[in-house]
# Entry
Amino acid sequence: MIATIAFDWVEFFLRWLHVVAAIFWVGLALGFLRLNLTLKSTKADVWRAADDGVFRIARDMNIPAEAQPQIGWFRWEAYLVWLSGFALMVAIYFAKADLYLIDPAVLALESWQAILLVLMLLVVGWLGYDQLAKAPWSETARRVAVAIFLFALAFALTRMFSGRGAFLVFGAIIGTIMTANVAHYLVPNQRRMLEAIRTGVAPDEARFAVSRQRALHNNYLALPVLVLMLANHYPLAFASRFNWIIASLALVAGAAIRHFYVARHRGSGDLWWTWALAGAAGAAMVALSIFGAEKPQARAAAPKSAMDAIASVVAPRIGDVEDIVADRCVMCHARKPSWPGLAAPPKGVMLETRAQIAGRAKDIAAQAVWTRAMPPPGAHVPIGDDERRTLALWIASGAPAR
Ligand code: HEC
# Structure
């Protein structure tokens, strides 16, 4: 009991750390990129008004001996995001793989197999991306190749894990790519640059080009990775039949929005088509979540008798719903869950009383009717299509509480 509560707080702390570090990393990195692009495009100093003065920012490679430039790539923010994210993934998706990661209807994995697969995919994601990003092609061709590689990964992930797990692992792969870019290229290249300046040799322009490329890639990936991490609470995105397309479209939309700002800060004008593209991708994500939603009525077997036919058009009463929820949900969604390893109801969702059930009608629809996100597929709770259909009919009739 005490141990489980302590564990919950550790998880809370890690989540907080993860979010705070991510805000610092993304905020600083995008702000820095903007400054960098503006300095290069105007070829003049940049003046920025702050709360207590005006700053003049210049790119200067003639550094006086007494100046001690610090490494300006926010590496600890990046590393902290990765480390806290990895710890969270272990605490939630690895420790409770049956609830979060595995869907036996997709692929019947044992927990250890699923975990091993995730670890391998993190490595494969980085190696594949890195090879494509340094292929001897034009930068546009490389970016297209990286995008196709990531779309293929999204597809593969949804064929291995639960929708929830696939989205999280996809986000983790992209986050690993971004962190590895920092650790493997940006920071070492800055070290070399400072070393070169200190010893009076000209810094290697080719390395600058690589750093620029990787910093830009990270900027394009920043928004999509956040969509993937937050999508966990939106089963219409992750548990849809089209979930891998939805994840890929998030990548397109996020990159398009960032492209608008990259072009603007470079002084190449306002590319309004990027917003049209992002809007179209967003609209397609919504449309796919609607088309991808389950249709429990259509799946139900034809009524066997006249009585069945009548029963199927009479709206179910809360008592019928209560019975289903008691059998299929309450072992986890109770003030004191009986499911081993759960100290508290997940996400605070309790479904023990009629009032609680009716109050959660919309959430029940999203999790258990429009999608099959609940009960968690890996938990092997034997809920039938007829039961989902009863929930669907109850919701369609306005989810009466009595
Ligand atoms: C084996 C345990 C288990 C069972 C059974 C179960 N759930 Fe859940 N439920 C979970 C877990 C774990 C989460 C937290 C998911 C997350 O962290 O995003 C959850 C989350 C939810 C949420 C909140 C989702 C969110 O992100 O806010 C709803 C609503 C929900 N479940 C409804 C149901 C319904 C309805 C049933 C029965 C048809 C059900 N659950 C059965 C474990 C269970």
Residues 99, 232-233, 325, 328-329, 331-333, 339, 346-347, 349, 360, 363-364, 367-368, 374-376, 379, 381 surround heme C (CB under 6 Å). The chain has a mean pLDDT of 90.
